[in-house]
Amino acid sequence: MEERIARIEGIVEQMDKRLNHIESEIVGLRGEIGGLRRDIREDFEGFKRDIREDFEGLRGEFETFKKEDFGGFKKDTKEDFGGLRRELNELRGDVRRI
Q: I want to staple 70 with a disulfide (CB 3.0 to 4.6 A). Which of 10, 19, 66, 77 is the partner?
């Protein structure tokens, strides 16, 4: 009986050591997971900040484009359409004469 109890106590001690080892690994993993979460949050915040800055830069470039180039495009387009309209009217006049 004493031998059986001693064997059971040995098994219980081994299980206790294994559980302590598992507990310490869990604590370590929790710390690693917390660190990874912080890193991911920081990276994501940096990514959002970079995207915001990029969009602000693009917005500024587009505004400049609208003021400088697009305005010229509108003017050129109006002149082109005006020229086309005159040519069409002349062709209509020529067709009517025929």
A: 66
